[in-house]
Design brief:
- This protein has about 270 residues and is α+β, with helices and mostly antiparallel strands.
- It has a domain of about 110 residues.
- The structure holds zinc ion.
- The site of zinc ion (ZN) has 6 residues, from strand 5.
- The site of zinc ion has 6 residues, from strand 5.
Length: about 270
């Protein structure tokens, strides 16, 4: 891996050392991985080797000597076809084993989880623009389309533009009081399905927080109202009022009109 020499007692440094790539990543560690090293060399011309059990366990800069490994969820069988959005250099679906298990048990299309080589800031966020993602336990996912699936348009593509169009079209149907209101029906189904999945995910004890979109997403999902700029104005969406029992873990936030964000933690359990 790497070599160095010293002629004085004390620390010996191995610059540029990195972990080898381990084959067979089909075996995913859930709890944690420790790294132990064995030094081999010579002292005074005599071959020596250290005992890993006698202080050979590597400590990391945060003081811990066990870490939770991350795996590329996008390459896991059964998940590779479930991603939306563009890919980032170095991979952007680094996930803990439990995150992968969660995704395998869920129907949602997903995008970013964590990037490779992501570093925490002192404030606890990551150095990325998408600053919440850093430990393989935050997932961006498409909304339900309200038609039994998670198709792109009503899932949030184009910054939620198709969802917005549906809301405004439904408002026109209500304003004009047309006999058939297919857009209103589609919007009602969209709200019902998304409130249902968000409540379901928020109820889980491992869920830390869920972010949804602000603006028209918040108006429809949380307030149950048409936007004030719509044809109907700021009135209740027929069939739905405000989401009165919305879980406290669900929070509207900018930059989430094209996806909802699930953040969970193993440590809370
Ligand atoms: Zn996110």
């Amino acid at each position: 891996m790497t070599q160095n020499h010293t002629s004085t007692p004390g620390q010996i440094k191995f610059p540029g050392i990195s972990l080898p790539i381990f084959p067979n990543q089909g075996t995913r560690e859930r709890e944690g991985v420790a790294i132990t090293v064995r030094l081999k060399g010579s002292v005074g011309g005599v071959e020596v080797r250290s005992d890993p059990a006698a202080g050979g366990r590597v400590a990391f800069s945060d003081g811990r000597n066990v870490f939770k490994p991350l795996y590329l969820a996008g390459e896991v069988e059964g998940l590779s076809g479930r991603r939306y959005g563009p890919r980032d250099n170095g991979g952007d679906s680094w996930a803990t084993t439990r995150t992968i298990e969660k995704l395998l048990a869920s129907p949602y299309p997903f995008n970013d989880i964590s990037s490779q080589h992501v570093t925490q800031t002192s404030a606890g966020g990551s150095i990325l623009i998408h600053k919440g993602h850093s430990d393989g336990q935050q997932i961006d996912m498409r909304y339900a389309d309200g038609q039994g699936g998670y198709s792109e348009a009503l899932g949030g593509a184009n910054n939620g533009e198709y969802i917005k169009q549906l809301i405004y079209a439904a408002a026109s149907e209500v304003k004009n009081n047309v006999t058939l209101k297919p857009k209103l029906k589609a919007l009602q189904d969209w709200i019902l399905k998304n409130r249902t999945i968000l409540a379901f995910e928020a109820r889980h004890q491992k869920t830390r927080i869920i972010y949804i979109g602000d603006s028209f997403i918040e108006e429809a999902l949380v307030n149950g109202k048409f936007p004030s700029a719509s044809a109907a104005g700021s009135v209740d969406i027929p069939g739905w009022g405000a989401w009165t029992d919305m879980p406290g873990k669900v929070r509207p936030d900018p930059d989430h009109r094209h996806h909802w964000h699930l953040s969970f933690s193993d440590e809370n359990v």
